[in-house]
Amino acid sequence: MRRLILIAVPYIWLLALFLVPFIIVLKIALSDAWLAIPPYVPTLDISAGWAGFKDFLSGLDFENFIFLTEDDLYWKAYLSSLKIAAISTLFTLLVGYPIAYGMAKAPDEWRPTLLMLVILPFWTSFLIRVYSWMGILSQEGYLNQTLMSLGLISEPLIILNTNAAVYIGIVYTYLPFMILPIYSALEKLDASLIEAAEDLGCSRLSAFWLVTIPLSKQGIIAGCFLVFIPTIGEFVIPSLLGGSQTLMIGKVLWEEFFSNRDWPVASAVAVILLLILVIPIILFQRNEQKQREANE
Amino acid sequence: MKHTLLTLTATVAIGAMAANAEEVRVYNWSDYIDEELLTKFEEETGIDLIYDVFDSNEVLETKMLAGGSGYDVVVPTGSFLARQISAGAFQKLDFSKLPNEQNMWDKIKARTANYDPGNAYSINYMWGTTGLGVNVGKVKEVLGDDAPVDSLALIFDPANMEKLASCGVHFLDAPDEMIPAALKYIGENPNSMDADVIAKAEPVLMGVRPYVQKFHSSEYINALANGDICVAFGWSGDILQARDRADEADNGVEIAYFAPKEGALMWFDQMAIPIDAPNPEGAHTFLNFIMDAENMAAASNYVYYANGNLASQEFLEEDVIGDPSIYPSAETVENLYTKDGYPPKVQRKATRMWTKIKSGT
Residue B319 to residues A211, A264, B149, B240: CA-CA distances in angstroms? Predict the structure, then answer.
């Protein structure tokens, strides 16, 4: 009995927090836009019983999904989101790895403080932190003022409202998600393995390449997924820091929902986004599983 | 033990008080009221006022159509109001609770009846035009002394825009505003609901697209005032607020508002009560408070928009009532046009075109 409850808990969790919301969204994706509250038909009338449910089912169709294939905007937005997510994951890794490495190599008594510093920005609202980047990157912003007063540039750089600003925003926001798993992998690393490699004639650099990197692979993979997956659907950063040419699926979804008031098409976009994300999420799960087995 | 009991009683008492205190939740446009009026309302009526802001009709409409927004008073623009009324989003006003309605202006009521037949669901808050916010000094520096600052050619002629790009141009991120303006520029009917006519706006907007720094519906106030941009196509009062902020900052930036001579869009922001408002009684109290002549005048004096309240005009400051860019002369009004809401299929085409213009896809 206890065993049954133990198994049931994760499934109930999955059902309540994933499957039920997904079915609600899918249901809207199969309906048609309508000028009413809520703005789509058909709506399920529970009081009409079985006949009401049959009426409801017959009103559903895949029209909205067909519509998404007819306009190239949608697949271009999905592709562009994947590209932006991939590039920002790479940059986050390039910035995050040295930080995690430095933290893992730091004296024991410093580590809690360093860890604290990585987590500290989370105490401020995400929105405020993104807004402060607008203050830094704008034409009259701190970055341009500093560079100009140092005489490095004569004209202010245009960074805000470009894709560059989006990358900066994403790397900044998701950096802790990259640092923490890599740090936890590096911290467990046995220092004698590096010593052994050096004793056997490896230079420090090749010991790093041949020993440290492979042994922190699990952390790198976990960090990359933790950055890549949420970045694909990112909306706040591109809409605040990006320009109008920044094409991301989160913005397209917003537009369907708010400008067109077409909840069914917006839901169809969301369903497909989820299906795209299922692949990396499954890969991530398998990686976690492998790591757990390796540790046992 | 006694101490715990005491604390417990106190907590219960506070909880009960919070439940009893009446509150009204208002959802209005950003930068759209003198905040002293909000305090005044709370002092006069004893009702707690919760005041939230938005900067696009689309956001408001989505909340209205989702239902259960929790707001008691909202402020959609006429064309959006009409659509939301037909979706059943609002309740009819109870005019027995709105004695100040007698202050309202017949001429404006005649126009708003176009969106809200008989003005049964809404009262006018402010009205204005959509036009050109110009940093006169900078634009003349770029385009010469004969720059067409009062013409749509300033923003729709690529030759002008190419030069203006160096000092910055913002457009409203609102297809419902930009498409009619582009149609007006090429001599088409700006209120057309015909998809083929609307499509003619695309090459006009595409032609100047590369020179537009940003499409945004509220940032241009500060951007104009700081001198970050030299031209914005935006809402009259917002641009006049930018003018004032620049004057206050004394930063040498001089902003002027021009309603395009080809014709400008005239719009009406209407206060209405959602069908599921938690406190319709308090909402009526708020509407009546806003329709008080002095209160309405205070709001207009602060935000530089004209209002639909005739009685308020004696309390308006001279730089508001006397400014033709706020209260246009009768002949200018002749030249203004209004726009109805797009039906869903046309709306989708317009939004899609707008996405294409903004993102190039």
Answer: 75, 49, 21, 11
In contact, B80 and B341? CB cutoff 8 Å = yes
Q: What pTM was computed for the model?
A: 0.81
Topology of domain B23-127+269-328, CATH: D-Maltodextrin-Binding Protein; domain 2 (3.40.190)
Predicted complex: ipTM over 0.90: no
Q: DSSP E strands: which ranges in A10-57?
A: 32-33, 40-41
User: How high does pLDDT run on average in chain B?
Assistant: 91
| Domain spans, chain B | 23-127+269-328, 129-266+339-359
Residues in chain B within 8 Å Cβ distance of A137 = none
**Over residues B235-254, mean pLDDT:** 92
Dihedral-angle region of residue B68 (phi above 0 means left; psi in -120 to 50 means alpha; beta otherwise): left
Contacts of A128 (CB under 8 A, 6+ apart): none
Domain A72-295: which topology?
Answer: MetI-like fold (1.10.3720)
Percentage of chain B exceeding pLDDT 90? 78
Q: Does the distance separating the beta carbons of B67 and A38 come in below 8 Å?
A: yes
Looking at residue B4, its pLDDT comes to 46
User: What is the C-alpha to C-alpha distance for residues B333 and B106, in angstroms, rounded to an integer?
Assistant: 15
- The third-level CATH classification (topology) of the domain covering B129-266+339-359 is D-Maltodextrin-Binding Protein; domain 2 (3.40.190)
**Would you call A35 and B359 a contact, using CB atoms and an 8 Å cutoff?**
no
Q: B83 contacts in A (CB within 8 Å)?
A: 35
CB-side exposure of B133: number of CA atoms within 13 Å? 37
Which residues in chain B touch residue A247, judged by CB atoms under 8 angstroms apart?
A: 359, 361
Run of H or E including B50: strand B48-54
**Better-predicted residue by pLDDT, B172 or A261:** B172
Query: For residue A90, what pLDDT is reported?
Result: 97
Counting DSSP H helices and E strands in chain B, the numbers are: 18, 11
- For chains A and B, CB pairs below 8 A equal 74
A111-119 vs A72-105: helix axis angle to the nearest 10? Answer: 160
Domain residue spans of chain A = 72-295
Each residue of A270-296: pLDDT tens digit? Answer: 999 988 888 888 888 887 788 778 776
Q: Which helix (H) or strand (E) holds B198?
A: helix B195-199
